[in-house]
Amino acid sequence: MIINAAQLCELLQGELIGDGEMKIYGPSQIDKGIPGTVTFLANPKYEEYAYSTEASVLIVARDFVPRTPLKASLIKVDNVYGAMMFLVEKFSKNGIPSPGVSNLAQLSSDFVPSTDVSIGAFAVIESDVTLGDRTIVYPHVYIGHGSRIAEDVVIYPGVKIYPNTIIGQRCIIHANAVIGSDGFGYRPDENGRYVKIKHVGKVILEDDVEIGANAVIDRGTLTFTKIGRGSKIDNLVQIAHNVTVGEDTVIAAQAGVAGSSSIGNHARIGGQVGIAGHLQIADRIEIQAQSGVHTGKFPEGSRLFGYPAINYNDYLKSYAVFKQLPEYMKRIAELEKQIAALKGESL
Q: What is the widest separation between alpha-carbon atoms in the chain?
């Protein structure tokens, strides 16, 4: 999308101060702005960049008054964040593929494309697969037999969707994610050799779920692994077999959830968190980055930190003591010497 500043202002129902003919090709970050882009100032701590940014247009609040002259034209709006998110959505549509099926896609003979579906080159769709209206399948995607994919789903290049996966409306799956691989399940035989346990369950992604690049969600052993409505899974996250993630939960990069654990609704899990298997994690739990959780005995709304994880405030108090242990050891040794001296003893 290419638009001038005056048209941009009209879209945002704002007030333009500056050159209305300035051409805008996309958004940028205020401290890394380049000519031909639009950026925004919503947090006062970034105001210094308003005077140095190379962006052509700057979106600001109605009451913003610059301290010195600005290079950029201004658009004053009621809600700066809302205006910028609206524009990001508008500009992001530039690269969306048009509806249609590439001649280089490999489709099962029983596949029937639905309305306005887009399927890219070298995508593979096996038998008994359904795709909802307006779903986008980028090149090099594999969708296994029996999978059910709803409307307005976006599946980026290189995604592998194993058979019998169920994906709800408006889900987004980023490049190279794997949905439905076997769980890490083995049993030792009488000779101590590991024998693979067959996984015949499935993965269910409910509506409005987003899965990051290179994330892996294993299928259930006998039933299912499920990611609840509206939950967001970051890049490089591992969700093991039989795990259930509740609604509107977010899990940051490199976290791992072991098999058969259940995470509640509205939980927030930081990067590199490890959650042991067969735990029940309550609703609205917050787990700080790099924590290790080995028990589910924390009530709803708890904040956890550390390894093994404990309540956040308890961890901070404990760490304040722990980091001073070398000094405490010196002081204890000195006190022991003084006590010994008082007793006429030697250490």
A: 96
Tokens matching residue 301: 């709304």
Nearest partner of 200 among 186, 180, 216, judged by Cα? 180
Which numeric CATH code is attached to 3-95? 3.40.1390.10
Query: Two tokens at 325?
Result: 């242990």
Which residue reads 């093991």 in tokens? 240
Indicate if 266 belongs to the active site.
Answer: no
Contact 77, 13 (CB under 8 A): yes
Instruction: Tell me which of 241, 266, 278, 294 is the catalytic residue.
Output: 241
Helix, strand, coil abundance in the chain, percent, nearest 5: 20, 30, 55
Q: Can you give the pTM of this predicted structure?
A: 0.78
Would you say how long the chain is, in residues? Answer: 347
Helix axes 5-12, 80-92, angle to 10 degrees: 120
Measured between alpha carbons, how far is residue 271 from residues 122, 240, 302 in Å? 34, 16, 17
3-state SS, one letter per residue, for 184-233: CCEEECCCCCEEECCCCCEEEECCCCEECCCCEEECCCCCEEEECCCCEE
The Cα–Cα gap between 213 and 243 comes to 19
Distances (CA, A) of 287 to 297, 303, 309: 14, 6, 8
- Please give the Cα distance from 225 to 184 (Å, whole number): 13
CA dihedral sign of residues 115, 139, 142, 237: negative
CB contact at 8 A, 63 and 5:
no
DSSP single-letter state for residue 122: T
For residue 193, give every residue at least 6 positions away whose Cβ sits within 8 Å of its Cβ, in sequence order, or none.
none
Residue 327 neighbours by CB distance under 10 Å = 9
Contacts from 191-197 at CB under 8 Å and sequence distance 24+? 197/221
**What is the average per-residue pLDDT within 12-41?**
92
Sign of CA dihedral 269, 275, 277, 282: negative
In angstroms, the CA 157 to CA 203 distance is 20
CATH for the stretch 100-314 = 2.160.10.10
Residue 319 dihedral angles phi and psi, to the nearest 5°: -65, -35
Question: 347 pLDDT exceeds 60?
Answer: no
pLDDT tens string 30-76: 999 999 999 999 999 999 999 999 999 999 999 999 999 999 999 99
